[in-house]
Amino acid sequence: MEKGIVKLRWVLLVLMIIAFLDLLYLYTKDYSSYFNNRRGIFARATLTPAGGDSLTEKTWLIVENTDGFKVECGLLTPRDKSKRYPAIVLMGGKATGKYAVDYALDIRNVIIIAPDYPYEPKENYTITEFLIDVPEMRRALLDMVPSVMLLTDYLFRRSDVDTAKLVLLGYSFGAPFVPCIIANDRRAAVGVMVYGAGELRTLIRHNVNRYEGKAISEFVGLLGGLLLRPLEPMRYIEQVSPTPFIMINGTDDEMILRENVEALYAKAKEPKKKIWIESKHVNPRDLELTKKIIITLSNELAGLGVLDSTAVLP
Question: Which range in 81-85, 273-277, 310-314 is most confidently predicted, on average pLDDT?
């Protein structure tokens, strides 16, 4: 009996060492090759008209590479095809995905493309459900990087895109992807994080702690930080330069800690700009705040020469 217990302890110790080494490998691994291989070579684009108005066409788009990797998107394009327009790759909140194009209020003379998320998060998780879904969640989140790279390949093939004026914009759930994508694909003219920050471990811990106990939030934060290390904004933010970098955040954001915003901004290199808006966390149903963010961002992009005064209607 005693020998059996000793043997079990050794087995558990070996398993713990293996698990630790696996996590260490995930933590230190360079994912650049994975992102580029997953992106592959552009093969085709399938467009399905979805309405619009007198000035703008709305389309559901599927972009695919030669390996069968697909990205679903929402796409807004000006009906006038005689000119070339700035393009915004828009990574929205977890509940919007490709439908983020529906919240591009009163924007004209700009092409907007919003990739869908390949994993749809649940409203609430038990610990068991979370652990079961972790591999799928992680794979889907990592795939956002090659997805945007493949969409950029598509945009660069369009004759109506001004490829010198590509904006990579992530807000809320989509914000942390921005530094990683720019570090692996230098084609964006500007990188923008709206209501996002760095240090994912503490952000995850903070948000889980709003609904669960301290022990659970510490565990989920630690696990999430390790598994999402390949996307950690703090890991890539210095590589964003010389691409201009803009952060827009809410002064009373209940989801994004101010110290996390300040930590990421402090590590970013010039050119950079940080803007605070008096608000809680961004919500697409808050049309007044959405409009304020759009006007603020449009003014900044106009100052950089990426957008002009016709992009946002008064």
Answer: 273-277
pLDDT score, position 134: 74
Instruction: Please answer whether residues 48 and 59 qualify as being in contact, where contact means their C-beta atoms are separated by less than 8 angstroms.
Output: yes
Q: 32-39 and 177-184 are packed helices; what angle lies between their axes, rounded to 10 degrees?
A: 80
Q: Which residues pair with 45 in a beta bridge?
A: 63
Q: In the predicted model, what is the mean pLDDT of residues 82-90? A: 94
CA distance 235 to 21: 20
**Type of residue numbered 238:** E
Kindly state the tokens that stand for 297: 């961002």
The alpha carbon torsion through 24, 29, 35, 37 (nearest 10 deg) reads: -110
SS3 76: strand
DSSP-derived secondary structure letter, 107: B
Q: What share of the chain is helix, strand, coil (3-state, %, to 5)?
A: 45, 25, 30
Whose tokens are 């983020």? That residue is 100
By the 10 Å C-beta count (0-12 exposed, 13-18 middle, 19+ buried), 28 is classed as exposed
DSSP state of 230: G
pTM value? 0.87
Dist. CA 91–CA 27, nearest whole Å? 24
The verdict on whether omega for the bond into residue 314 sits within 30 degrees of 0, i.e. cis, is no
Cα distance between residue 60 and residue 53, in whole Å: 15
State the CB neighbour count (10 A cutoff) for residue 188: 23
How far apart (Å, rounded) are the C-alpha atoms in residues 135 and 148? 21
